[in-house]
Request: fold
Amino acid sequence: MRKDYLLYIYSSKRVNLKKSGKTYTTVPKEYSHLFLGQKLLKDLTSCYDTSLTSDIHIDPPSFLLGNTAPDLFFYDFPAFRFRVLAKLLHRGRGESLLKIIVSLIEKSKNLDTNSKLYSFCLGCLGHLAADMIWHPLVLKCCNACPKSPKAPQCPESASCHFRIESYLDILVAKYFGHEMKKRDFPKSVALFDPATRKLLGIFCREINSTNGGALKCDPASTYRCLVTQVTFLTFFQIKPLYWVTLGADLLTLRKFDQYQALFYPPDGLVNKSTLAKLSPGIKMLLSPDGKLLENHVELTSDLAKNFITIAMKQKSGSWNAKKAYTELLKLTLSSGVDGHLDFVS
Reply:
């Protein structure tokens, strides 16, 4: 699907990309978060003591919406520039996002603990756990790429980061046995369910409250970001790329860069010599025994379940928002990896 077609439908006005010279971007890892979230949903049915969860029934659509919502703000459109807001949510070790989640869980006490909002919050915790485990791996892969004398910042640039993450999307999908073709994401997220708009509205208002209104988060624009994300996940065909094995083959790397060009502006990573420099980082993801992905998937699930165990104390009557935040933050510091979330720029 052409990028300008998406802009025509979901932006405030049609933009001629060739004439305007402007660039608009999306963000990778939608697939990774979706598949990891689906695995976590299955794990939650069997990993906890029955006495704690017997009355807790997680709403899958709300959970999966929360599992992807923090990344919606990386969509960069002319009508609503959210990238600063996205970086706010992902800075440091997740402090900003944790504060928002804990506050929402606290507010959900006035509702049914099985509510969609509660499920949404648990999904957000799953998202945070995935970022804590996978971002250090992506940064490590970026650092494996040799620096260019003309662009010494290249391996640490956002462009390199996004390209590595996009290939990781493919590997994670393959790990879970998906072909990444016409996925059923809209059914999972319940895009046209009124509850979806309501949850995003609550999420946005909490973001505005937490940051003191310095960065306005508009619910209507956020919903349009979600529509664009779902459209991309549903209709964009990347099956040919799915079967590609990346290595030192420059032609293969060029095909990969053509895929990336649909979402990221040209930035110097388009010539053969520069493309070849991505190869060391990509090869790091392809461990010979296949254990690297498996280990990270399990680490993600374990950390997310620990997060959610703390959140579920709300049900048991031992919930304390301040204490919960401290416990959650402590987990991010002792998760077994350097869980720093800051995005390079």
